[in-house]
Every structure is written in structure tokens, then in C-alpha cells.
Amino acid sequence: MLSKTFQQLEQYLQQQVIGQPDMVQQLLIALLADGHILVEGPPGLAKTRAVKTLAECIEGDFHRIQFTPDLLPADLTGTDIFRSETGEFVFQPGPIFNALLLADEINRAPAKVQAAMLEAMAEKQITAGRNTYPLPELFLVMATQNPIEQEGTYPLPEAQLDRFLLQLNVDYPNADSELAILRLNRGEALEPSQEQPEAVHLSQRDIFSARKEVLQIHMAESVEQYIIRLVMATREPQRYSDALASWLQMGVSPRATLALDRCARAFAWLQGRDFVTPEDVQKMAYPVLRHRLLLSYEAQAEGIAPDQIIHSLIEQVTSA
Fold it and tell me: Which residues of the chain have pLDDT under 70?
């Protein structure tokens, strides 16, 4: 079964990306749910390694782009090149034309580059000059942000944040994982070809078939209604508590509803089940909602984090 193959892939990735099980799992969920993932965390936490290792296991090309303040849209999308021998302009595709794209420090690029990224993520196409070009059918963006260094950054607009299926916050590994990372790195440097676990390989057809299986996972009407109640609670928080009402300036869009549905199904499928439980929805509520909630000034002044609000929502919105 494909679900077992993906479970084997998850195990392999966790052997290669030590101490970040949530990042590995959410990356696979984004792949299964046909969405993009935003990762926020300090440098050096194997974000590039995770995407690169995944790219080695699936049929598709990988490219990493370092976003900088002087980046131009053409550096991302490509541009028309004049061929003197033919007297014609020929489009030269840019690095965005890859199956897996790592957008490193995405918030360092100016608005025009963000607009090009927004079109690519939302429409799976780019526009260069007067022409529009489709992106590969398998297209996944993993973007990173550094939460510490904010000098010279451009905050992502709400419309672009909403296009990310998931936002994951990664932190430093524990002491045991740090020791395992040390030994893995030393072993790869000394004997790079020996004692490596066998990689799992997936074709694009396998991925598209897995996506269809995920969509066919059974979700009871009560679970669907639970998703709706969670989403509506972000728009009408005063019905639940004064604290929620004071913390939320604006609720989430219907994209959050669709994302909760797809991600809860993908999570259940990865666990080897053919049905979705309310616990699956609660598990995925954090990465699906945390970047979509617009916090009020009061919440920011009190230091209230989005995860605290989501935890309060889960506590107050009944699943039955």
C-alpha cells in the first residue's frame, strides 16, 4: 500500500534529519495535501537538508533560492533572452521551474518578488513579459523565516501567508538528538558511502495516486461540523469568551477550512487509518491556523502567541 511506502519514507527522513520529527511529518503532509509550507526557526536546524533529502527520494528536481533585498522577479521566474542567430526572444526558465523549491529567508525579498511568488503558489504559473507559463504539476514550496533577525526584512502580506497550507515553528533539538547529529555528520564525512539506510523512492504517479487516496479517506459529518465550528469560532470569538474576542482582530478565511480538511485526512492516512478523528483535526489546527489568525493590538501587547489562542479554541469548541 502507498500509505506504508510513505511511512517508510517518513522513517528514512527522520534517520537523515535527526531531532525534527514534526518538520519531516508536516513536509510529507504538505506534499500529500498539495500545498506549501512556511517554516520559522533559527538557522542550522536542517531545513535545507530536509527538503533536499525529500527531493532525492521522489521524482522531481530541487532548487534552493536565497532571498535577498536586491532579488528581482526575473531572478526567480526567468526572462526572455534575445537570440541574435534567429532574431527572436526565447524564454529562459528560472529556478522556480522545479518540483521542490526551498525559498530561504523569503521575507528578505521586496514586494515585486513576493508578488511573483504569490502567483506561483496560488495559480501554479508565472508571468514573464506578456506571456504566462505553467509550473510543473508537482510543485511544492518550503519557505523559511528567521524569527530572530528582523533587520532588512519585509513582512509577508496576509494574502501570501494565507497561500501557505502550513506554518511550522522549529526549535533546537534535545541533547540526545544533538549527539546523534554529531555522530551522523562524522560518519558521513568519514565514510559517505557506507552504513547508509536504503532510501525510499517515489514516482510522481505514486504521489498523485496517494493524494487521491487521501481525498477518499472517510470523514464523518460530525468531524466536518467540528472543522466548521473551529473556523467560525475565529470569526465570532465573542460567542465563546471575552478573552478570545479581545485577542482576535480577524478570523481565518475559507482556505483554512479546506486546509484543515485536507491536512487532517493526510495525517490520518499517514497513520495507516481510513477515517479521520477529531484528534486529527486538533493536531493539524496548530500549523494550519497559526499564520492565518490576525491578532489584535491587545494580544500583541500581552505577548499572546497564536498557539495559545488555538489551544483556547480547542478547549472551548466542542468536538461532539
Answer: 149-152, 192-196, 320
